[in-house]
């Protein structure tokens, strides 16, 4: 990239990075995506999106939500449209005969269950990205901040300059160390949550043969120390299954996943006396243990011209189905504040964005600070409450315990702050805060300088 161009480097092409790129593209802000893989790819299987995520899509680019709606799958029974999930037990009988059985769902009239295969979602997102704005096989080795620009050094030896970097390189992304190491070294590494999962996608016809009508809608099968979630994806052709296992031992492996035998996988659940139907569903699961890691503490999301977005900033457990939505909220708020910066100082020979300078650094820092102030408290609260929610599914909440009626009441009360959040207000707040910062000490004199 020519050094005198205002161009944002995006490191990573997952949901967060692509959502942010869609937002910048919609606002006309130049960017370049650097992805270490040889092509766009999807890790994982199903992804669920709540009302807040859908509003974020709409505010990023209305076409984004419209396209997602075309591929989204909800509960297959119309009467379950507004149910997020329904409580079941893991043990034999699944809780049938209990007073709560059949009406243990949680949700809201304002919640509509939607989910998709991660690959289908990413296919939609990549359709918005110009081909010349993406560079594959580009693994960043290091970053160096200068006055008004950042140098990215790649493993292949290439060096490029950008006005700023937004890193969305995942829960173990190296960019987190660059942002936090100097002041907050204790917060750099992701923390093992004490749980791992097995994953499967089961053909819906087979799932129905095993579970009957229970297969068609989202369920959470609970027990002490383990739980299994199931829900339909791919227009109801597949069931996504995630089997969670509590683990009191430290994570001892260099990667976040490792393979075990099929026997070891099944042995993980024997003590929970699982219903035979659930055991049959596990036939489709790969015997790979995926550790769940999170970032419970992130003191800041930026360091001068380098900013964190998505899981590298606030990875949390999947228990609230809110991780992808939080990435999209990041994408919305950060793209809007950078759009505000770009339109406030359109690039020209007289613009402070035209060439690297201390002034350009201050402008970008003001945008990143506004984003940090608006997004970090909410995103970190999601990390905290997600872990808490996982305890509920394991029937170890200090109040609800093993009482499923209390569990369901808790779950019916705990998601509103996520789903019904006012994102339009956040957009106004981040833009207003950016303007305020231009007049405060960190950017004093910016407007006057820009007129010179």
Automatic annotation (TrEMBL):
Keywords: FAD, Flavoprotein, Oxidoreductase
Molecular function per GO: oxidoreductase activity
InterPro entries per the UniProt record, alphabetical: FAD/NAD-bd_sf (IPR036188), FAD_monoxygenase (IPR051104)
Species, as recorded: Pleomassaria siparia CBS 279.74
GO biological process: secondary metabolite biosynthetic process
Listed Gene3D superfamilies: FAD/NAD(P)-binding domain
Lineage: superkingdom: Eukaryota
Identification of the protein by name: FAD/NAD(P)-binding domain-containing protein
